[in-house]
Amino acid sequence: MRASRQTRARRRLTLLNREVLIFCRYRRTKHFRMKRDSFSQLCETLRSWLTRKNTKYRAAVPRIVTNLEYRSIAQLFGVGLSTCCQITQEVITAINVVVRPKYIKHPSSAEFREIVQGFRDRWRFPQVGGCIDGTHIKIRAPSNNSADYYNRKGDYSIILQGVVDHKLRFWDINVGCPGKVHDARVYALSSLCKRGNGGVDVPVLLLGDLAYPLSTWLIKPYQEGPGVTPDQLNFNSKLSSCCMAVERAYGRLKGRFCCLLKSNETHITFISQIVSACCVLHNFCEVHNKEYMDREVEEAEGGDEEGQQQGPQQQHMIRDALRRYFSALQKLVFSI
């Protein structure tokens, strides 16, 4: 009698775990970007969704880790080319539907208190709930509106905007804006901006670079040049050091998932889902893995500068208060 669909799915899960078990420690972390117990936990999380789909979902891992061609992955796992494509799409969808709500979410009040304390302890910057920045994900030139995706570095790309905490984990992402769009515009179109401007859900400060608009809850550096004061330069230095958190997070993300480093050949309609899944798995690894096993990719893109806002708005008063705080702190250190 032919085995039931559920029985065949259970057999595949058993085979998957057996394959992971026989990997040595180096090969396992190299190919799956996580330790055995973490990978097993991920399998269990996805089990209910993917057993229903009858999916050999281990085949999707090399695609997002290395950007390996579908044909090579199909040969590696003994499945057809079309089946490999289907499996990858099902796994990516499952990660975004099942795992993302748990691992990328707006922090609770208690979690924000922990984040604020973490930034204060590590970078001595008060009242910070996250650092925001964008990064470009290279893509093949789309057949439609390709000029919109051509960025200032001469590549076709989409933009990932992320907010990270003191542990280099994303708690907000926005994926998919064409590469030509300025960081400030990406931010303005995001749900994060709408929540912040509506006066809800953002009880602490975010830190960003000069590309972002200064607001009562998003603080950026002073424009440097003629007239800049030593206090302002000191403030800029402190803010820049703190914002290394988001640059390091992107470095670790791309170090883990090399598909984000190469020009992605996937259809434009699905690339955003892949990027989102990579961010989810990055957080999963940061939560469950005790050490980072891959090299970080240096992130030094930097945003284009926007015109400076003028006038005694409240946002300028908040930034000036922070500047005075660091100035007083510096004087206190030198007086000891």
Automatic annotation (TrEMBL):
<dbReference type="InterPro" id="IPR027806">
    <property type="entry name" value="HARBI1_dom"/>
</dbReference>
<keyword id="KW-0539">Nucleus</keyword>
<protein>
    <recommendedName>
        <fullName>DDE Tnp4 domain-containing protein</fullName>
    </recommendedName>
</protein>
<dbReference type="Pfam" id="PF13359">
    <property type="entry name" value="DDE_Tnp_4"/>
</dbReference>
<dbReference type="InterPro" id="IPR045249">
    <property type="entry name" value="HARBI1-like"/>
</dbReference>
<dbReference type="GO" id="GO:0005634">
    <property type="term" value="C:nucleus"/>
</dbReference>
<keyword id="KW-0378">Hydrolase</keyword>
<dbReference type="GO" id="GO:0046872">
    <property type="term" value="F:metal ion binding"/>
</dbReference>
<keyword id="KW-0479">Metal-binding</keyword>
<keyword id="KW-0540">Nuclease</keyword>
<dbReference type="GO" id="GO:0004518">
    <property type="term" value="F:nuclease activity"/>
</dbReference>
<comment type="similarity">
    <text>Belongs to the HARBI1 family.</text>
</comment>
<feature type="domain" description="DDE Tnp4">
    <location>
        <begin position="132"/>
        <end position="283"/>
    </location>
</feature>
<dbReference type="GO" id="GO:0016787">
    <property type="term" value="F:hydrolase activity"/>
</dbReference>
